[in-house]
């Protein structure tokens, strides 16, 4: 068989297929254009790790001058506010027209879908002075002699308890 007889058309780009597949799901989430979701890393650049588009709304009867709702990780508000003009420009470049005029920001708890989630803090390494070492308080600390003795005794008792 000849390869050309099996082909049913021209090669298609993957992004045109994804539009058809995820389009209905995006419409349910408030996205009339799913391209903003698929192109978010290019639109938001470094902010894509800690932000995600939530929805886009347009004035009644229009598909221009919309408002893009962006969820960001808590604590990143000022940084996102500084990036808004560039993100609007990038959104409009993706769409090819002035689709987005405003961006509203909602700070949310970071979930597993966002890449910039802070790593779990490592458990602190305990140094219990298992060699019987004592660590005296520096002389530069303004501490009374009674407090120094009390802290030294506390340290010794903790060291004995941790050894066994």
CATH topology of the largest domain: GMP Synthetase, Chain A, domain 3
**Name of the level-1 CATH class of the largest domain:** Alpha Beta
Can you list the strand order of the major beta sheet?
1-2-3
Number of strands: 3
Question: What would a concise description of this structure say?
Answer:
The chain has 164 residues and is α+β, with helices and mostly antiparallel strands.
Overview of the molecule:
The longest helix has 19 residues, at 77-95. The protein folds into 2 domains: 13-108, GMP Synthetase, Chain A, domain 3; 129-164. With 164 residues, the protein is of the alpha+beta class. The protein has helices at residues 3-6, 14-28, 35-38, 40-44, 77-95, 145-163, and strands spanning 51-57, 66-73, 100-108.
Any descriptors?
164 residues; GMP Synthetase, Chain A, domain 3; elongated
In terms of topology, how is this protein built?
Layout: H1 3-6, H2 14-28, H3 35-38, H4 40-44, E1 51-57, E2 66-73, H5 77-95, E3 100-108, H6 145-163
Parallel strand pairs: 2-3
Antiparallel strand pairs: 1-2
